[in-house]
From TrEMBL:
Belongs to the major facilitator superfamily. Monocarboxylate porter (TC 2.A.1.13) family. The keyword Transmembrane applies. The lineage of its organism: Eukaryota, Fungi, Dikarya, Basidiomycota, Agaricomycotina. This is Major facilitator superfamily (MFS) profile domain-containing protein. It is found in: Membrane. GO terms for cellular component: membrane. InterPro entries: MFS, MFS_trans_sf, Proton-linked_MCT. The chain crosses the membrane at residues 12-33, 45-66, 78-98, 125-147, 159-178, 190-209, 215-238, 250-269, 281-302. It is a multi-pass membrane protein. Keywords: Membrane, Transmembrane, Transmembrane helix.
Length: 316
């Protein structure tokens, strides 16, 4: 549908890219994470990290691929269609190989039902969700605005374009290495430092006015933000008292976090510009993003304390 969008028809982009693809990606993501969680317990963090790292790989490949297709002889419509055919091949493969480890509830009539009331009254779990939502509220601001920031500060467009692929390439390692450590030291113990560092690194974006500053910021922010993005899922799953709860808990968390992802970057866009013709004011969105990320980190610390008392361990 996106390939059929007409110029200057925003509602078509909104329906195809925003609504249609948003629903589709949500349907794809949740089962992939839940099924993976069922297969692993001791190595759950790294397993989920590998799954989520695929999005970093795709972000690097697709951004470069589509940029060349859109600006070359292929053009926008067929550029989108080519990427759709690639997606179709990968999705068909994933659906053929992905299989649940546990039988469905219909096949297990004596299985213990998920206690929704207990989940909804779990204070530590909700603190984790609120913290994650606050972090996601500001975490993607650099991903959306670093390229524009670099261009406005004198970087050539070609070089500024690669700022985002550099960040996503670094995020590939950030979504695997911290998760590997999370299996040994606990997801919360790795996620919280990554979150705090990400909040502090927001201010380093002011130094991304040259090649060196842009590359250094992209590498550092991509790595540590990736550490949070990939490890929040096993952190949420760690509140589950039974394997049957994992999908439900992850689903509720994704539902709440979705509102933060929906509103975070538009708020930053409104803050960055004083009026339609005015200059960009970069400190406002970056301070906003940093404050909400660090506030989210505080909620995650409180959530960890509750879970630590419940499980009588500090390896969380």
């Amino acid at each position: 549908m996106l390939s059929l969008v007409q110029p200057n028809q925003y509602y078509q982009v909104f329906l195809a890219q925003g609504v249609g693809m948003g629903i589709g990606m949500g349907i794809i993501m949740l089962p992939a994470l839940s099924v993976t969680s069922h297969y692993f317990r001791r190595r759950r963090s790294i397993a989920i990290g590998v799954v989520i790292a695929g999005s970093s790989t795709g972000a690097v490949v697709y951004s470069i691929l589509l940029n060349n297709l859109f600006n070359g002889k292929i053009g926008f419509p067929w550029g989108v269609r080519i990427s759709a055919f690639i997606d179709l091949a990968f999705l068909l493969t994933a659906n053929l190989v992905m299989k649940t480890r546990l039988p469905s509830r219909r096949e297990r009539p004596n299985a213990k039902p998920v206690d929704i009331r207990a989940i909804l009254s779990d204070r530590g779990y909700w603190l984790c969700i609120i913290g994650a939502a606050l972090v996601f509220w500001g975490l993607f601001v650099p991903f959306f605005y670093l390229q524009v920031f670099a261009e406005l500060h004198g970087l050539p467009k070609t070089l500024a374009f690669y700022a985002i692929p550099i960040m996503n390439a670094s995020s590939l390692f950030g979504r695997t290495i911290p998760n590997f450590l999370g299996d040994y030291f606990g997801p919360f113990n790795i996620m919280i430092p990554c979150t705090i560092i990400s909040g502090g690194l927001m201010y380093l974006m002011f130094a991304a006015t040259g090649v060196a500053g842009t590359v250094v910021f992209g590498i550092l922010y991509g790595f540590f933000s990736g550490g949070f993005i990939s490890i929040i899922t096993p952190a949420v799953a760690s509140f589950s008292r039974d394997l049957n709860e994992i999908g439900t808990r992850i689903g509720i968390a994704c539902f709440v976090i979705g509102f933060a992802l929906l509103t975070g970057t538009p708020i930053a866009g409104a803050l960055v510009q004083q009026n339609h013709n005015g200059p960009y004011i970069w400190w406002r969105p970056l301070v906003f993003a940093s404050i909400v990320v660090l506030t989210g980190a505080a909620c995650l610390i409180a959530s960890r304390q509750i879970l630590s008392k419940r499980k009588s361990t500090h390896v969380l």
